[in-house]
Design brief:
- This is LuxR family transcriptional regulator.
- The protein has 421 residues and is mainly alpha-helical.
- Among the domains are: 91 residues, P-loop containing nucleotide triphosphate hydrolases (Rossmann fold); 135 residues, no CATH class.
- The chain has 18 helices and five strands.
- α5 crosses α6 and α16 crosses α18.
- The longest helix has 18 residues.
- The protein is elongated, with a radius of gyration of 28 Å.
């Protein structure tokens, strides 16, 4: 972290003034090294290689031998051991006698927090600092790019005496830059780790940088979890034409906002049906599974599985929503059958982007606890709830509460299931 910057500082220091500096920026091999050495004019040599792990073995071995014979001093920067593909040319230097190593670690979260406080002139919200630390990896150059090149500094606002990123309501287009991919990846990672506050700050930062479309599915579902269904629809309507219809999780977010936020389940079902017909049989099946689940939750489907009998079950997310729909439709009349479907759904939701939005598995867990209680299997329900209903970080409890409130099914009860409204 900051190796090149440190190297450049060293080369203009008073200690370097007594050396003839010879830089090897491109893998040169023994011949190339020999061609550069006469430039020294009899002065002490400082042989410099930046990012030595990108060089070739011949160059580094030749430079090492020159140093062993006292012909010069070798100054290199290299990536930490184990972070580059093998074989690493710099390995030939790691065990040299009399070497001196300077390890420059990434900035810690506390250091990023302190630096941001200096930039904005006050204390920064923990989730905001976490977001930028996650996106930059503590790399000062990347952090500078995010704050400077993306001009994020002007998008800080003060709320409850803490600085955070301004809220966003519409998509903002922008040119593609490496920093945008960093924000997008960090937001997605935080989302699937159920670090909701960090994910939200990363999404806001990404939108202000012009990467709203890249994080749109995450932001839309985060707004749903916060009960801001109106903002969901405004944001989705601002996205480029057909983006929502052709992106499954955006289509799901819009349907949920229509069905549970505006109380228009028929409009949600019609939207998903049209989107499914546009997508064709295989991808369209997921939209029909979303539709069936919304029908079951709102009590509009006869058995919670209308139109899903022939769906492609190889898609895990489709299968999870199919089982969730059937469980929702049967939990009152046949809780044992609901337990079967919910356990099948959880078995499919072992993580990853193909297992549905990350709120799905916690929500299904809460529903399963309810179904077990209704089926008279209180021991299993208590065991399942022991590490869930207490609200441990990352357990998904808060997510299950939010989805249950959104769908109008009340809040999870004290045993861990969902308490009816």
């Amino acid at each position: 972290m900051g190796r090149t910057a440190l190297l450049e500082r060293a080369l203009v220091s008073s200690e370097a003034e007594g050396y003839e500096i010879v830089r090897f920026e491109v893998p040169a091999g023994p011949t190339g090294v020999a061609a550069r050495i006469p430039e020294a004019d009899g002065r002490r040599l400082l042989l410099v290689v930046d990012d030595a792990h990108l060089s070739d073995h011949a160059t580094l071995l030749t430079l090492r031998d020159l140093c062993r014979r006292g012909a010069g001093t070798l100054l290199v920067t290299t990536a930490p051991a184990g972070t580059v593909p093998q074989p690493d040319p710099a390995d030939s230097l790691r065990f040299e006698p009399h070497r001196r190593n300077v390890h420059v670690p990434p900035l810690s979260l506390d250091e990023v927090t302190t630096l941001l406080a200096d930039v904005v002139g006050g204390h920064v919200r923990h989730a905001t600092a976490e977001a930028l630390h996650a996106a930059s990896g503590g790399n000062p150059a990347l952090l500078h790019e995010l704050i400077g090149a993306c001009d994020l500094g002007v998008h800080f606002v003060r709320r409850n005496n803490l600085w955070e990123f301004r809220e966003v309501s519409t998509w903002i287009g922008g040119e593609t830059r490496g920093s945008l991919a960093l924000l997008s990846k960090a937001a997605t990672r935080a989302w699937y780790e159920l670090s909701l506050e960090r994910a939200h700050e990363l999404c806001k930062a990404a939108v202000w940088c012009g990467a709203g479309e890249m994080v749109a599915p995450v932001l839309a579902h985060l707004l749903l979890l916060h009960g801001r269904t109106g903002d969901v629809l405004v944001f989705l309507d601002s996205l480029p034409t057909d983006t929502v219809e052709t992106t499954p999780h955006l289509a799901l977010a819009k349907a949920m906002a229509l069905a549970f936020g505006l109380g228009e389940p028929a409009a949600a079902e019609e939207f998903l049906l049209k989107a499914a017909l546009l997508r064709g049989p295989r991808p369209g099946g997921r939209y029909l599974a979303y539709r069936s689940w919304i029908q079951a939750v709102t009590g509009r489907g006869s058995d919670g599985s209308e139109g899903i009998g022939g769906l492609d079950r190889d898609d895990r997310e489709t299968a999870m929503f199919v089982h969730a729909a059937r469980a929702t439709a049967t939990i009152g009349a046949d809780p044992q059958q609901a337990v079967f479907h919910l356990r099948r759904a959880l078995a499919l939701g072992t993580g990853g982007a193909d297992a549905g939005p990350p709120w799905l598995a916690p929500y299904i867990t809460a529903c399963l606890i309810d179904a077990l209680l209704l089926a008279g299997r209180s021991g299993e329900a208590t065991f399942l709830a022991s590490d869930f209903h207490g609200g441990e970080q990352g357990s998904g409890w808060d997510v299950a509460v939010a989805i249950s409130m959104l769908t109008g099914h009340g809040r999870p009860n004290v045993t861990g299931g969902v308490e009816a409204a």
